[in-house]
Amino acid sequence: MFIVNAGIGPRATEILEFLPRHLTVTEGATVAWISNGFHSVVVPEERTDFPYYLPMEIPDSLPIVAVNPEVYEATDGFTDTGFFNSGIIGPGLRGYGTRRNGVAATLTFNESGKCRYICPIHRKLGMVGAVTVVPR
Q1: Any idea where the domains of the chain sit in the sequence?
Q2: What backbone phi and psi angles, to 5 degrees, belong to 48?
Q3: What pairing do the DSSP bridges indicate for beta strands 29-34 and 104-109?
Q4: Its pTM surpasses 0.90
Q5: Helices (H), 42-131
């Protein structure tokens, strides 16, 4: 298993990068993204058309702002369209993570190629990364 840090350091001075930013693995390898902060991993990188927050209408009330489910809700591996969402990774539900059982999200890469990903929360700050998968 390969580990990628999603951000590193104390919250006030956190480095908003994936470390390492580029990783090369062989087919069948699993990558785990870990975080002590407030991050998400979304593949493919080009899928940046969704906002982090959405207005939500409540009957007989003022609208509120809510987290977009496309950022918040994790997928179980790649979908049929090649989309992956880690959900919010962080220190658990008492903090702000949405992943069950901890602070990591994992993904197994079974096909060779290059997989680019982003943190949709911090994409405008350049929080992007890539996994290059080579044949065994």
Answers
A1: 2-134
A2: -120, 20
A3: antiparallel
A4: no
A5: 69-72
- The CATH superfamily label for domain 2-134 reads Cupredoxins -  blue copper proteins (2.60.40.420)
Helix and strand tally (H, E) in the chain?
1, 11
Quickly list DSSP for 34-66. Answer: E-SSSB--EESTT---S-SEEEE--TTS--EEE
| Nearest Cα to Cα of residue 74 among 122, 110, 40 | 40
Q: How many CA atoms lie within 13 Å of 38's alpha carbon, on the beta-carbon side? A: 12
User: What would the pLDDT profile of 56-95 be if each residue is shown by its tens digit?
Assistant: 888 888 888 877 777 677 788 887 778 888 888 876 444 4
Q: Is the dihedral of CA 36, 38, 39, 40 positive or negative?
A: positive
